Q: What sequence folds into this?
């Protein structure tokens, strides 16, 4: 089944409806669902999809030609081409009439095997394709390659594309579509441990318990996600030892450059390169306090990919037990009791996304168009933080929020703590609303006795409604 991606599919449909040659570049991290989206878009259309392989240009052209002829021009079965240029001429001549969609997936594989390929392709676009009715879609998982070699000004393909789509993980709501029979709490956890990555979401079967799914996928030798982070790091980077060290220390709580460098025993210069690479592939993010984004002292690095965060926190240390077929025992003893603790930061992320949705839909007391978090010293010079900050930048108004993913009701103390944080984010903003987010509901004082009209209570059921 296919879920979500409505806005991206709309871009593809609108581009396809235009006359003449068009070109869309699609990129995003591995397993994100690029290929699935392209094949979904191609259904019922005159088109051909080819997935490149890590082989020579000649081998890829041979395989691509066979695929294209089978899809578009079967009467030419058996035709062969001396080189890529001859094949592209043939492709253009086969697509003079009705709209034809040509999708080339994993273009980096061919370009890395033959550095001249992008220039050859550029010549084909300018010389042969420009007068056809081809809609060309090129796709790749190597994000840095796509940004630097395909989209940048130095690329031979620069200026040829109509548009581009950077495909990102699903948000919490679309992720829930994969497990419709789960409770809101379980849907949130599935989102948390998969990071909204399409492939990982498809591994969860909601006819089984959440515990069983986690055991099957992470804590079993045959589980798809048991070795997934290491497999992906090997595909992305030549030497994964340093990358492994950095992710490990960040999973342990280190989030400042000096602290990460010290604990991973990596120089600051080398660490900067590693962190930027991990950010590019979507594993980590650089986070700033929302109203102080230029303040370097208020910058930290976090693992923002949920699957990596879960794996490095729990699975990495479970390998001996898993190899001894005791992964299930390990899960119940060491993981399940700490799931809510793990979900704390992820629930904050969900609440920030929900706040942005509500703000843009006009459901809050100001038009929130940007959300984030904030940390710093309070009036007593004690370090504190605010889980959710939503800004209405034009009106200089804000909402602030507190989140609890615990098996206990949120009570007056959460309200009091949030109230004490008013006025901390930026003197230029007026906080007009307090948001309290809770997994397990709210105390009687909050639901019946609190007379602060600026307070909005938001349950997880409401978030997933």
A:
């Amino acid at each position: 089944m296919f879920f979500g991606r409505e806005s991206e599919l709309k871009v593809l449909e609108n581009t396809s409806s235009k006359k003449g040659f068009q070109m869309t570049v699609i990129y995003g991290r591995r397993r994100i669902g690029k290929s699935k989206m392209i094949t979904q878009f191609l259904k019922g259309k005159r088109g051909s999809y080819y997935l490149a392989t890590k082989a020579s240009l000649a081998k890829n052209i041979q395989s691509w030609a066979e695929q294209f002829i089978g899809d578009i021009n079967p009467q030419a079965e058996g035709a062969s081409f001396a080189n890529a240029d001859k094949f592209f001429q043939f492709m253009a001549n086969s697509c003079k009439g009705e709209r034809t969609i040509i999708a080339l997936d994993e273009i980096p594989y061919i370009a890395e095997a033959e550095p001249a390929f992008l220039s050859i392709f550029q010549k084909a676009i300018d010389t042969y394709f420009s007068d056809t009715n081809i809609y060309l879609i090129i796709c790749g998982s190597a994000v840095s390659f796509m940004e630097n070699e395909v989209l940048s000004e130095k690329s031979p393909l620069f200026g040829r594309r109509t548009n581009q789509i950077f495909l990102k993980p699903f948000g919490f709501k679309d992720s829930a579509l994969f497990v419709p029979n789960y409770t809101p709490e379980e849907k949130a956890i599935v989102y948390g441990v998969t990071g909204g990555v399409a492939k990982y979401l498809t591994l969860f079967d909601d006819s089984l318990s959440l515990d069983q799914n986690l055991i099957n996928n992470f804590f079993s030798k045959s589980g798809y996600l048991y070795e997934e982070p290491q497999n992906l790091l090997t595909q992305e980077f030549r030497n994964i030892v340093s990358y492994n060290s950095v992710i490990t220390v960040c999973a342990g709580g280190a989030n400042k450059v000096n602290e990460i460098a010290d604990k991973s025993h990596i120089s600051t210069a080398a660490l900067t390169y590693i962190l930027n690479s991990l950010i590019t592939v979507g594993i980590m993010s650089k986070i700033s306090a929302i109203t102080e984004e230029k303040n370097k002292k208020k910058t930290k690095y976090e693992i923002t990919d949920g699957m990596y965060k879960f794996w490095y926190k729990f699975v990495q240390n479970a390998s001996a037990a898993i190899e001894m077929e005791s992964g299930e025992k390990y899960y119940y003893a060491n993981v399940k009791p700490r799931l809510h603790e793990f979900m704390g930061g992820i629930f904050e992320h969900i609440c920030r996304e929900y706040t942005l949705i509500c703000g843009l839909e006009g459901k809050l007391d100001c038009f929130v168009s940007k959300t984030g978090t904030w940390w710093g010293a309070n009036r007593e010079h004690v370090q504190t933080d605010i889980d959710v900050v939503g800004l209405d930048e034009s009106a200089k108004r804000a909402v602030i929020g507190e989140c609890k993913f615990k098996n206990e009701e949120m009570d007056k103390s959460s309200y009091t703590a949030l109230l004490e944080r008013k006025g901390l984010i930026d003197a230029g903003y007026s906080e007009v609303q307090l948001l309290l987010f809770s997994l397990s509901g709210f105390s009687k004082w909050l639901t019946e006795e609190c007379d602060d009209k600026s307070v909005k209570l938001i349950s997880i059921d409401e978030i997933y409604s």
About this structure: The two ends are 22 Å apart (CA to CA). The first strand starts at residue 22 and ends at 27. The CA atoms of residues 284 and 303 lie 4 Å apart. The first helix runs from residue 6 to 17.
